[in-house]
Amino acid sequence: MKKASTIGKKHVLNVSDALNRTILNKTLDDYDDTTIQTVKYILNLYPDIQSVQNKYDMPIPDDHPDLTINLRDQTKIKLELFLIRGTASVQPKNLGAKSFLKKYFKSKDLQLYFNDFFNKAYKEFLTKVVGEKEKTKIYDSISILRKMVKQYYPKFTEEISLYRSSFLFEL
């Protein structure tokens, strides 16, 4: 498991456990400040929590929100957690262009359509960027083109900014 994924999972599990301890009027002395602050924030938004489930309680965790909060009035609140470190800004989860429609909107067909569109647009973008330096071949794969772009442009520069903007606006 990637380090970021491990940190995110630990945060979800800690917040879930801490919320459940709070419901039982137990202390949060064993938790780090990030977990405690997250719990306080959630309790401020939803003071009438009856129970909490986290996505790791489910058979397929990625099909569920980080937390499902059940309120006393039977309302279910679905929450996605974000981890904030120190004075840094919120670090949102990477939705992933090639999975967000399926994951967050439960639309496999639309995701497949978007992925096809994305791949074509991305290959066209890479082809144009590489085309600034050399002639590309029609059969160059995205992987090959990406390597070529990294070779010519280790960082985004003004020289390719127009292509980048055009690609992003097309999406």
Describe this structure in words.
It contains six helices and three strands. Helix content is 51%, strand content 9%. The chain has a three-stranded antiparallel beta sheet, covered by helices on one side. The protein is mainly alpha-helical and 171 residues long. A hairpin with a 4-residue loop joins strand 2 and strand 3. The chain has two domains: 77 residues, no CATH class; 71 residues, no CATH class. Helix 1 packs across helix 2 and helix 4 crosses helix 5. The longest helix is centred in the C-terminal third of the chain and has 24 residues.
**What structural class is derived from the secondary structure elements?**
mainly alpha
Strand content of the residues, in percent? Answer: 5-15%
Low-pLDDT parts are 83-93
Helix content: 40-55%
Order of helices and strands: HHEEEHHHH
Give the strand order, joined by hyphens, for the main sheet: 1-2-3
Q: How many DSSP-defined strands?
A: 3
- Report Rg: 22 Å
What is the number of helical segments per DSSP (H or I, 4+ residues)? 6
The total tally of domains equals 2
Mean pLDDT: 82
Q: In this structure, how is the largest beta sheet organized?
A: 3 strands, antiparallel
Shape: elongated
Cα distance spanning the termini: 30 Å
Briefly summarize what is shown.
Helix 1 packs across helix 2 (33-45), helix 4 packs across helix 5 and helix 4 (108-131) runs antiparallel to helix 6 (158-170).
Features:
3 strands; mainly alpha; 171 residues; single chain; 3-stranded antiparallel β-sheet
